[in-house]
Amino acid sequence: YPRQHSLEIHLSKFNLTEIKAMLGSYTKVLFVRDPFERLIAAFMQGMGSSPSFSSFVQDVLDNGQHNASTTWKPLTSLCRPCLVQYDYVVVFGFLRQELSHLLHQARLPADGLLPKLRDAEAQWTYSWLSEQMFSELSLQQKQQLSHFYRWDLSAFPFSGSLLTG
Fold first, then answer.
1. Domain residue spans in the chain?
2. For 123, what's the count of Cα atoms within 13 Å in the CB-facing half-sphere?
3. What is the pTM for the complete model shown?
4. What residues contact residue 131 under an 8 Å CB cut-off, 6+ apart?
5. Which candidate in 10, 45, 62, 149 could, as Cys together with 35 as Cys, close a disulfide (CB 3.0–4.6 Å)?
6. Read out DSSP for 24-44?
């Protein structure tokens, strides 16, 4: 869109006509990740001051969605998938397959542009880690997390998420 190319400008700064023109002129790609895996990654990266995963989750729940860090805030509140018609939704864990398809659709050579991705290894590691971390949580915390991320869980294909069952 010719008007602005600054990373600091949010769509909310434009009027509805400009927003529609901008969104219509781009291929919109959304990268998503299971919300529970996002919480684990945030905890592992030391984004909270909690000594245990369970207390970290409790801090997240106590602070609520409005005070949540963008690192673990529900994706539906950040990217507005009901308002923005994304052309592609790329799910973490299937990056190589989905990025290859995306590059093919854009008529770009996938072989030279894609880094080496080990999706299967990442999936296995996060599956194991998720089960370990999930077992640390109380039933109430599990239920509260499922409620906290209910819109993400219904908007995106996280069928294997521990928060869905």
1. 11-50+72-155
2. 13
3. 0.76
4. 162
5. 149
6. HHS--EEEE--HHHHHHHHHH
